[in-house]
């Protein structure tokens, strides 16, 4: 596990983080909502140490006390943004619930292998003090507070607001944003203080996406299309970058260098990656740098199947970009040494909706000559497609889970609901580029004691490249 002595949490620089010791355990939220199993979600601790007798096993389960929360993404009470402050410790995992709007504060400092609940922030706190709901992304701030983006208001309408938690007491302090102007939708965010900016994205209105995806809701304006630009120091909404109707920009990542004035955003529905950057005028702009062509299909929801890019990350040395196509079933690695011209250097198929012998027939494909074979590991045919990804600090191992969100899992991959999701590991060539599934690594969440469960985001106790921000 990462230790920094008297320096405070995290690492001085992203390159320092790459030299840290190998991950031994990971934390993974496991979801029962929409599976038909009436049990609370839980936080799983998974052993990922190849030298351990419990390698690839869940070694601890922390159930939350409520049903149907939909645990989703998580963050930290302190990270590398607090490096240098010896009074801060990375000892609490912030675990928002996407549907119930409850926030669990989990103690991972007392025993990292057996987390326990430290505090519960009830939904009414978000409703009354911030008029927001459906919390999503949590990032720690250098100030010691915790910033959480939200998808909507308490009535289920879209609203791109934020809630601020006190980093010591975890009390809701109120909204982070100032002024009346707020984006119509919210989702993910990243900040870059040296350029006085916070960028947020848009998924959809909670009442539209809660129980599945209706393509007509895109036409109704209930799904996102903008990168929203905020002034970091004044907390005001200053600019919207329109990526087009039906784009649905999801995960957003600045380059890790705190001096960088650029990054990338993955658009789910349009299956495009846009590079955003600061212009000479001082405002922000975006350009499409990657596009995954849709496939013409038969036997599916629509005649054109998008890749549905659902997660994206950047290696800590800012050299490689990775993303997952949840529907097409592949993970891709791009060399971004030239950020304006990403170069595909690695690709691996891990399931998806277009595998040979399945219900979907591909009629026209601009990329593949034939439908990929189903992905089988240790005798198990993997249901669903690759979704959440997390890279080891040294960039050599990419961890993958297969659940997107229970309401959409149920619609697009009903077998995932029955069989549970999996966690896989991909070996990464960090010299020339290249991806290869590690056939010795499989965590089958279909075999959990409480029944098959949907495993989502992956976090390391010492921080990782999607939670740490450098000041």
Automatic annotation (TrEMBL):
InterPro entries: Se-bd, WD40/YVTN_repeat-like_dom_sf. It catalyses: methanethiol + O2 + H2O = hydrogen sulfide + formaldehyde + H2O2 + H(+). Pathway: Organosulfur degradation. It is a peripheral membrane protein. GO terms for cellular component: cytosol; membrane; nucleus. PANTHER family: METHANETHIOL OXIDASE (PTHR23300). This is Methanethiol oxidase.
